[in-house]
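Moderator note: this is an archived Q&A kept for reference. The question asked for a predicted structure of one protein chain; the sequence and the answer are reproduced below.
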Amino acid sequence: MRSRSVCAAFGTLVLVVVASSCSSGGTQTGVRVGRLNTNVGLGIEAPLNAAPANIVVFNNQPIPHLQVANIVAPTYPPFPTPAPTPRLDCPVAGPFDFPSQEANPDPDPTTRPVAADYKYKLDGTVTTDIGPERIDAFESRTISNVVSDSSSPNAFDYTMRQTQVLDERSSRQGTLETTYRVAPTGNLGTAPNPPAGPNMSDQGRGVFIMKIVFNGYDDQGHPTTSTFMPSSGVQLIQYPVNNGATLDSTGVDSSTGSTLEVKGTVVGKKQVDACGHRVDSWLTNSEEIYKFTDPKTFQTNEVDATYNYAIATQFGGLIIFEHTEAPKSNPVIKIDSRIGQQPRAQKAS
């Protein structure tokens, strides 16, 4: 993690890595960040802020021992000896198991993800208040609100809801909702005379983070909501996908001044093992940089995380794999999150 002092007035979100986030047994030195005022203008303090899917929240306290939810609970029969803890099955794809569909660089503009619950497999480590903990579990993510968007032809939004937030928010019974915009055609796609120049007709095409909302509870057990809503989306990939293409996209929340920047490179295809089903995708290796203003010192702080993600263009721009290390310089959290079932897609009606 880098920490900088840059006088400015920002503020919302918090720290490094998310829902699908966990890390190796490194020390916790230099990982702490004070609580943030997530709405300086209204004077509302929300200790646990909205944060990207790979951003971890700390509150000047060690990470609590993690109670991983959404897993089959132990079953104890009426006799004295307890049965083994049931485990969800996640078979390994064989060498001749091939993806059912290819992740095309230029996706079908009418394809959208199906609104449903999807299981994701988590593998990694996180250093908590009792030491390093191994994460080997499933979480449930819900895709909902798949709706058309008027920003460009064939564009649509979808929301991914996660209840397994592997950081301090895990004890607050909170949910994290990230809204993505998928623009398969682009805002110039129907222009009769598109501007000249390389890729000018592809402006605005791709997958973008449009909003992040955390709903949970504060220290007193009161419901609290925090939101990061950049005035323009933070781009995760551009269509058509080009191997080796670079990305540097920044979004600013105008109500708080908080910024989120994603800097990455498309490194090629990745076949994700979705518990026995190989799913083709495009992998981007990136760094996420989040800047916010400490409301007590009015100094701007910067936190970085390694965030590599794979997008299945053939399933409506669905994120099917994430690798997170946070903070980037000395990670206490390392985790892989991959979809644990065959995704589904449908044609726009």
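Archived answer notes: The chain has a mean pLDDT of 76.
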